[in-house]
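Give me the fold.
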Amino acid sequence: MRVAAVQLNATADQAANLAAADRLTRAAAADGALLIVLPEKWTAMGSDEDQRAAAEPLDGPTIEWARAIARELGVDLVAGSMLERVAGQEKLANTSVHVDPQGELQAVYRKVHMFDVEVGGRAYRESELEQAGDEIVVSRTAGGVGLGLSICYDLRFPELYRILAVRGALLIAVPAAFTLATTRDHWQTLVRARAIENQAFVIAANQVGAHPAGQHSGGRSMIVDPWGVVLAQAPDSEGHIVADLDLDRQREIRERLPSLANRRPAAYSWPVQEAV
């Protein structure tokens, strides 16, 4: 199974972002990818005002494009993430959508973990603009392979990925806009760790380069196998990477080193009871 991660340098110019996504999605499909993952917030990066202006409902032009190109190219498409206007909700959702090769929406995931941190001398407060989701989502590709959905900062929360694996995810998509500082120091370690501990393929599509409002993403999009081997890694520029996933090898790893099967959920009680 050949998959691709698309790496973009999104700005506040939605038309330019869409044109770049369209071009690179087509290039990935031309390289034989049957599953293509776009990065986080690929429709617009910039100030809160820029992002609010770019927000759409799920029946807006961004998802219409995703459905049309997936159908045209005959691919599964994880349309990165976009800011979604949700009826009856003041704040926006950071939403990832899986579209199948018939152009049908197979799954919708709203980012669970908000990036409220200080890093690289800058404060980020996603929760001021966005509402956290509360549902963990596993979809299925056209070939019936379990596909776990996650977004960016989720990568730092291993419990989410373990639940995805336990619920049947063999592949996990990570659309991201990881900051330059955290990409350089943490990105590869975190992506490989999530792959190894869950014996899953991880397709991590990152933004790259400078964006409006002083943001800077680190690139290095990756595709990692269940043994933690980096199958492909992007350079520090826009483009796409592809890799062939050996699902038989994954099955062999899970059989010979059955860490998922050896779990003992009954022993993982919380909170821990202290001895009296």
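Residues 180-198 form the longest helix (19 residues).
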